[in-house]
Structure formats: structure tokens, C-alpha cells
From TrEMBL:
The keyword Cytoplasm does not apply. Pfam families: I-set, Ig_3, V-set. This is Neural cell adhesion molecule 1-like. It comes from Octopus vulgaris. One of its GO terms (biological process) is homophilic cell adhesion via plasma membrane adhesion molecules.
Amino acid sequence: MNCEIGIFVSTRDLYFYQILKLQKEDKFAKCRQPEDPVKVNVQKEDTLKLRCGVENFSGSIFWKRGKIILSYGKEIFQDADRISIVDDLTIQIENVTLEDEAVYECQVPITSMQYFIDVTVTIPPSVEILRNTGERIVMLSDPLSIDCVGTGKPDPDITWTKNGGELPQNVDLDGTSLLISSVTDEDAGQYECTADNGVGVPVNDYIQVAVHYEPTAEIETDVIYSGPGHTLSIICMVEGSPTPDVSWFFNGNAITDFSGRTTRLSKVKSSKIQHELTIRPLIITDMGQYECLASNRYGQFNDAVNLTAIPKKVVITSEQVSEYSEAYRISWTVWSASQLVSNKILLRMINFTEPKEWQEINVPVEKTKFRGRGQKYDLTFDMTGLTADSTYEAMIQAENDYGYGEFSDVLIFETPKSDAPVNHQLQTTNGFALLRSFSTSFFGLCCVFLATGFPL
């Protein structure tokens, strides 16, 4: 940069034939050029105004773009449809193009005063997700790749989000591409690619990812215990994509008549839907197998539950060691949707050779005021005529008006040598409490004593 007053010697400008004179005060003219050219950014297609950094000067100046003279004073020599002179020191360029990016120079005639402005033309970002039809369908466990292309000047930075938040940990980024090696149902959602280069505002493109897979259906239990007059609700958890259609079957036949039956569904999480079949009131012919069938374009899946009016499985609650040498008080609980009629106890002595035959004991149940929702029974029974210092096993089955329920697990208990208090060390194996020593005494059951059981 040279800011001293001197003779203008540029041969390029010799065609200016007029004599240029500095006004009296112009001899004090000076430039304000910094050590480096002033840097100016302008967006493509915007309007650019450049002001020459010369102080204490009035008159005509030259404007150059690189080595090309654009103007002198008010006279325009290039792109007159876009370039104009605003005042003595200001030039204006409309509808800026990439070709306008250059170092501009303003120069005072007959002097060596020059002022440089480095103009960079910028372009706001644009972004596009390739092969974007609005939705990308990918099968469960398949890989997923989404490619995003951003343009602009300068080159934009590309960032990704999912559903407006951070990307899951199983997502990898390769340049501007998003990669998932094996998709899960939780990878479904909206993925957004954003381009930002500091020019204008960031822009984005998005794509909806749908993860498809064959359906599943699950009913939490295999058996439901209920009975006539009760209300039944069967809940079937269904999952699949696209959302499966659900059908209900009874004893292998599709349920088409919903008289006395209602169905409803509710979404319990992003991928699971709860379907509920309700029947009220139940009648005896409603007992049987109910099936929930889920189907979509990729297949079908079913689960089933048996509805029964019989009692639940008996749970024996008594100890494995009797207090008496020739008797044992057995206790158990059972739930039934209807009044219990009786209980069946199977009892036999066991030894190291072979077990004795099962002896059957029928224990009637005293009828009481029955609660309509079903109830739990707490029952006891005294078995006498047992052999001292012996080992027995027992199991119990409950009966109501609709049949016998499932037998309890086998209880193994021991009678002591005498009625004195005993403290046996028990050994647990396979869910049963076993005594460390067994007696080979012969089993002789002579009589039984009934202790009435009352429901809780």
C-alpha cells in the first residue's frame, strides 16, 4: 500500500484524457488502508456496497475488480446493469454472482493512494437426504444407511438428530451418512439432517424410518380360573409392524358374535398394544380355550388361555414334621370362584424299598355364605392311625360344582418316635423338604378325624 501523493502512472488508465486536479484541501488526502485488505462477505444475489477508505478527498476515483476497471467517477465500464455509483466513494453491485468474488481496489487519480477490499461471495446452505420418498422401510435386524448431501459456500457442517433429540448409541456416522448395523424396533422414528455454514439460517431435511417385523402375541397366563356370573377380562399384548390386526377365537372358532362381549385396545408403549376381551356375565358354556391371533403382512402369531370354573391348584401350608407320633395335622389353602364341595387327600408311606399304595381320604367342606367374586379357603384336617417314626407323602385336590382342580405339589412329612417335641434338620431338594433319615415302619392308617375348614 502506498498512500503518498504522487504522479498517476498506470498505463491502463491513460485513456482518461481530462486533466484531474486535486482541490486545495486534497493535498492532505490520505488513505485508511489497514495492513491487510478489508474482508467483506456478501450472499449471492444480494446487493453489495463498497466504500473507499480515503479520507479528506472529494472528486472522482477509480474502482477495480482485480485488474479490471469497473468505473471512474460516475462512469461505469463493466456490468452497467448491475453496477452503480452511490456517491464519490461508494460503489454498488446488485444481484451479486460468484464472479463478483475478488479483491476490489479504489484509487485516487494522480496519486498512489489505493484502498483494497477482499470480497467473498457466500451461498446459504441447502440439504437433501438421498433416495428420500418420505419414509424408509427397513426390516428388523437389517442394516440401515441414510445419506445426506449438503451444499453451500462455505461447505456446511452436517448434523443428525432423531425425533428432535440426540441419536441413539447404536448409530454410527460416516461423513454425512448415518449408519445402523442392525436395527431394532426402537430405531423407528424421524431422522433429521441439518446443514449449517453460518450463512443465513440452518436448513434441514428429514425422513421417517419404519421398522417392520412379524407380529407377536402374548397372554400372561395359561389358565384363568373363574365361573358363571363372573366378569372375564383376557389381556393380550400384541407387537408388530405394521400394526397387526387382532382376531379372537373360542375353542378354535372365530368370535363374530360379541353379544355380552366387548373388546378394546390401548397403547402401553411405542411398540406394544394391549388388546382386551371382556365377557360379562360368564355362563358355563363360556368355559374353554380363548385364542388371540395377531397378523400383518409378514405373518401371524397366536397365544391361548384356558378358562375354567374348577378350583385352583391346592397349596399345602403345614410343616414337614408332625407334632404327634401317630397323627398329622395337614393344612392347605385353595381359591375357587364357586363354593367348594370337598377335598381329596392322597396319602402313602414311603421307605427305601418301594412306596405303599395311595390311600384316598375325602374331606367334605361345610357350606358357608359364599362371596360372589370367589374366595380363598384355609382348611385343616387331622390324620390319625399313622405309624410312629415313619415318612409319608401327601397331596390334595379340591372340588367344586364344576369338577376337581389340579393336585397340589407332593408334601413329604415325618412322624416322630414319640409325641415329645422334635427338631429335625431338613434338607431341601427339587422344591421339597426331605428328612435326612427315613423309617421303614409299615404304614397302618386306622382312622381319620375331620377338622372343619372355614374360608378366610
